Amino acid sequence: MDLKPTIKQMFNVAQIKTAAPPKDREQGWKTDPLNSKQYRWWDGKAWTEHAGGGAGETEATTAGPTGTGASPTQPTGAEFSENRPDIEAAAQRLKMTMGAKRELSRLHEILGDEEKVLELARGTYGSRVGLIVLTDQRILFYNEGWTGSVNQDLPLRECRSVAVGSGIVYSSVLIQARGNSVAISKVVKDDAARIVKAAREQLHRVRQPQSAVQTQGLIDAAAAKSPMEQLKQLAELRDAGVVTEEEFEAKKAELLGRI
């Protein structure tokens, strides 16, 4: 048997040696500079030949490479989210990350600086495996594939309802929004229940009416327009959760009486 390294292997070794170091130079599993869909062991000074933990693996290994003298937990991907504690905390609650590690590692890139991740779940939308992300501003499905990303971005104020669809093995997350309906399948049951519960709490929060003074001010501003214009504006305020359904119906009856 010829044990000499192949040209390809020698080329890979050369690439590893010249690859840029990670931002966090502490010893541990880092995103592989040669393949962002897997991890490579950084020994604190240089990249090593040890790589793995790709998106196709069912379970991540729990120990460092043999001979490194370290036993870290191989990361789920959240550790590379630019030190975002909210992402890391939500990722720790995930029951499954298989196929969504790339999205976990890049999630911080599509979030606003003031946006906070509350819950995560791995799921399938169409034929794409990715992340369901609940923040304090929106619900989104995020997939970062080789041929481009697939995103469904739903602001909380536009969401009508979020529900769990039950299945034999997995659950689905069903989101009804203004002018859009999204069904994400193959979600682990515990993850689906947790993210839907948290999403409902956020929907309740954003639907809370503003103070009486603020609400009355918006209604008074609408009163300066024609009855039909007022009705249209009040409907928009209701849809945005600023005016309650009762306030809308009362004002609607009053406006219709003027026509």
Describe the fold and architecture:
The protein has 259 residues and is of the alpha+beta class. The chain has 3 domains: 7-52, no CATH class; 80-207, Roll (PH-domain like); 212-256, no CATH class. The chain is 31% helix and 29% strand. It contains 7 helices and 10 strands. The chain has helices at 7-18, 85-92, 101-106, 189-207, 212-222, 227-239, 245-256, and strands at 28-32, 35-42, 47-52, 117-125, 128-135, 138-145, 148-155, 159-165, 171-177, 180-187. The strands form 3 sheets. A 4-stranded antiparallel sheet has the order 4-5-6-7. Helix 6 packs antiparallel against helix 7 (245-256). The relative contact order is 0.07.
Short descriptors:
259 residues; alpha+beta; PH-domain like; four-stranded antiparallel beta sheet; 7 helices; 10 strands
Short description:
This protein has 259 residues and is an alpha+beta fold. 31% of the residues lie in helices and 29% in strands.
Topology at a glance:
Layout: H1 7-18, E1 28-32, E2 35-42, E3 47-52, H2 85-92, H3 101-106, E4 117-125, E5 128-135, E6 138-145, E7 148-155, E8 159-165, E9 171-177, E10 180-187, H4 189-207, H5 212-222, H6 227-239, H7 245-256
Antiparallel strand pairs: 1-2, 2-3, 4-5, 5-6, 6-7, 8-9, 9-10
Helix pairs in contact: 6-7
